[in-house]
């Protein structure tokens, strides 16, 4: 990093387009997260096609805004109608709703907002500190190291994404298999194209992800259409005071740290982080007995835990090119459509873009504070949006977005088919996250494998050539052992 | 909620799919040149994935079988067709399946008619059909949003992003 790169990065981010994209993304994310039945993932997936028309930095900031807004937005219905807008906000209902029942909704919401913004800022700082260092370390990685790294990431993502390791593994293998469709990169021969020219370039990534993460909710709603008519608590009472914030600050800092650590490990995500932060806060609090009955520290703990993940999940994405969760897997799409490949080389070839993203992320924490404040006041209107309108709107947004990528109705067919597959997976308890992440990482995994084989003259010893590969093999075995031990304790 | 019997069926389904992949799809639909290194051939990776999937499918089936033997499904045993609550649930499930079938027809229609009618009008019809299918509480709102949203999306993609949105042959937009 040098002064010139930083000034270029500043020029990229200090434009009205970038700032507007960030603000619009945050607003869209907060609304998406706050509507029960939608999720941050769905909001990011639907937004992705809109980034094609934008500059890379603008599009990426738009998506990051949606991501961050979505995670905070989920806390609003969690507090006001006891229905978490996103799974990450489930822990917030435990104390947020009892506070709203006691007429302290304003205090709970402002604490959720402060905790979210502080944790988000700290997570962004962790990203800035760690990503560059990790990327420079990863520059020494060759194909065998990348192969073992991706294998480890897929194992852990498959293991922790659902209730069953085996279903997660099957889902990941199906994703890898789908990634093989198209022309073989070495020989140029057909693989599963069935004579269809549209399949020669492989399946459109956007059609697959929108189908997997937006349409199953539409299918589920059509099967059982019902509105969520929770009693919306009004935003009464005073805001959280400075004394509240000071009292909760150690909890927020601990929750942020938990979020950063858990976010930087692929596959874990925001919901487990929020629950871990909550249980740690309850264990160490002086007001232990009040937890679950409307304790403001509980709200601070869960919100700092889930928002602490947001920046940290970008560490493996930007430094190694490995998405840590579904949302970062979708964000990788925004890079790919602009011809950018996240990973260690991105820092060398597009350093100004990376640092512009960092600057935008820090800025987003401040913007979230303003936008979140207004969103808490406007929630009554957001909650009033009927699902019978939201779900058809999701369908139409998906149709236009997916069509716009390649201008072909073939992609619409792929999206609808993947929607059916995603709905089936939802019903059968097969997690979709390993499927999508494996689909994205599949080509990289196979390329690394084949390059390593070419380098070694087809000798598998190359996968044990360096201490780094040994570390990743060790971590893979260790995670499998932990996951299998858990499996024996808790059958599917 | 997933039951062990579902897991058993799912596992067997995955195993069947992977067997078809290994013995039919890979030999038939992956073109591999003769000779050369085995591990670099285009069919090597799909074959390995097929075997992995077969193993995972059989393991899921086995796990489901063990779980169902250890704890028989109480819900299946308790279902009583004469019970009004169970009958109501069954009726709701039938209604849901009909709506899903309707959605399937709608999606196929949109995919096939988008070029002929135009993406905007196909989306308007799709939106209204979906609103009708779920019997929206505020259908007038659905009618309005169903027109405004596709038009706004058309304006964004066609005018701002320069994407050639299909106009169809009947009603063309500026």
Automatic annotation (TrEMBL), chain A:
Pfam families per record: TctA (PF01970)
Transmembrane segments annotated in the record for this chain: 20-48, 111-134, 146-162, 168-187, 199-224, 257-278, 317-340, 352-376, 388-406, 412-441, 462-484
Keyword set includes Repeat: no
Ranges of residues in domain DUF112: 19-436
Annotated keywords: Membrane, Transmembrane, Transmembrane helix
PANTHER family per UniProt: TRICARBOXYLIC TRANSPORT PROTEIN (PTHR35342:SF5)
Protein name as catalogued: Tripartite tricarboxylate transporter permease
UniProtKB/TrEMBL annotation, chain B:
Domain DUF1468 span(s) in chain numbering: 9-166
UniProt keyword annotations, A-Z: Membrane, Transmembrane, Transmembrane helix
Membrane spanning residue stretches: 12-32, 44-62, 96-113, 119-136, 143-165
InterPro entries to which the protein is assigned, alphabetical: DUF1468 (IPR009936)
Keyword Transmembrane helix in record: yes
Superkingdom, taxonomy of origin: Bacteria
Protein's UniProt keywords contain Transmembrane: yes
UniProt protein name: DUF1468 domain-containing protein
Organism the protein comes from: Paralimibaculum aggregatum
């Amino acid at each position: 990093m040098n002064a010139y790169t930083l000034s270029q990065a500043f020029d990229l981010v200090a434009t009205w387009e970038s700032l507007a994209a960030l603000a619009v993304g945050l607003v869209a994310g907060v609304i998406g997260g706050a509507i029960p039945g939608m999720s941050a993932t769905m909001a990011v997936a639907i937004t992705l096609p809109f980034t094609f028309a934008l500059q890379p930095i603008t599009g990426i900031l738009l998506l990051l805004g949606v991501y961050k807004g979505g995670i905070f937005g989920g806390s609003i219905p969690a507090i006001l109608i006891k229905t978490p807008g996103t799974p990450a906000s489930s822990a917030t209902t435990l104390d947020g709703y009892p506070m709203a029942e006691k007429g302290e909704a304003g205090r709970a919401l402002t604490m959720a907002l402060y905790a979210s913004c502080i944790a988000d800022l700290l997570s962004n700082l962790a990203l800035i500190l760690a990503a560059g260092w990790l990327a420079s370390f990863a520059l020494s990685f060759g194909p065998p190291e990348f192969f073992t790294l991706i294998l480890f990431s897929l194992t852990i993502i498959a293991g922790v994404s659902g209730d069953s390791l085996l279903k997660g593994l099957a889902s990941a293998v199906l994703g890898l298999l789908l990634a093989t469709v198209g022309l073989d990169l070495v020989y140029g021969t057909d693989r599963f194209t069935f004579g269809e020219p549209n399949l020669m370039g492989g399946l459109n990534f956007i059609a697959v992800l929108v189908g997997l993460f937006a349409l199953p909710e539409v299918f589920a709603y059509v099967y059982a259409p019902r509105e969520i008519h929770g009693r919306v608590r009004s935003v009464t009472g005073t805001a959280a005071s400075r004394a509240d914030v000071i009292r909760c600050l150690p909890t927020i800092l601990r929750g942020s740290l938990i979020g950063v650590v858990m976010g930087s490990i692929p596959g874990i995500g925001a919901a487990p982080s929020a629950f871990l932060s909550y249980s740690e806060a309850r264990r160490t609090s002086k007001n232990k007995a009040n937890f679950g009955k409307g304790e403001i520290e509980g709200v601070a703990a869960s919100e700092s835990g889930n928002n602490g993940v947001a920046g940290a999940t970008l560490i493996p994405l930007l430094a190694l090119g490995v998405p840590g969760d579904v949302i970062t897997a979708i964000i990788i799409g925004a890079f790919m459509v602009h011809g950018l490949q996240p990973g260690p080389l991105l820092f060398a070839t597009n350093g100004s873009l990376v640092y512009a993203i960092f600057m935008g992320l820090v800025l987003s924490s401040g913007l979230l504070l303003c936008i979140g404040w207004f969103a808490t006041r406007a929630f009554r209107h957001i909650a009033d949006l009927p699902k019978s309108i939201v779900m058809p709107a999701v369908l139409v947004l998906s149709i236009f977005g997916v069509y716009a990528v390649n201008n072909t109705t073939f992609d619409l067919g792929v999206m609808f088919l993947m929607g059916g597959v995603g709905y089936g997976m939802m019903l059968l308890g097969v997690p979709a996250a390993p499927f999508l992440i494996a689909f994205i990482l599949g080509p990289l995994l196979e390329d690394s494998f084949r390059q390593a084989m070419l380098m070694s003259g087809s000798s598998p010893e190359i996968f044990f050539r360096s201490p780094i590969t040994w570390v990743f093999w060790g971590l893979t075995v260790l995670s499998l052992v932990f996951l299998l031990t858990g499996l024996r304790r808790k059958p599917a | 909620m997933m039951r062990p019997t579902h897991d058993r069926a799912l596992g067997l389904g995955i195993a069947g799919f992977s067997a078809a992949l290994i013995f039919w799809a890979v030999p038939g639909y992956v073109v591999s040149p003769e000779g050369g290194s085995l591990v670099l051939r285009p069919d090597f990776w799909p074959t390995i994935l097929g075997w992995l999937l077969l193993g995972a499918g059989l393991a899921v089936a086995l796990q489901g079988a063990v779980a169902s033997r250890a704890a028989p499904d109480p819900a299946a045993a308790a279902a009583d067709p004469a019970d009004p609550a169970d009958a109501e649930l069954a009726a709701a499930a039938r209604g849901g399946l009909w709506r899903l079938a309707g959605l399937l027809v709608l999606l196929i229609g949109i995919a096939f008619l988008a070029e002929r009618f135009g993406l905007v009008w196909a989306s308007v019809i799709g939106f209204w059909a979906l609103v009708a299918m779920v019997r929206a509480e505020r259908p007038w709102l659905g009618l309005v949003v169903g027109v405004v949203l596709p038009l706004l999306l058309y304006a964004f993609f066609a005018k701002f992003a320069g994407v050639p949105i299909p106009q169809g042959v009947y009603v063309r937009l500026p």
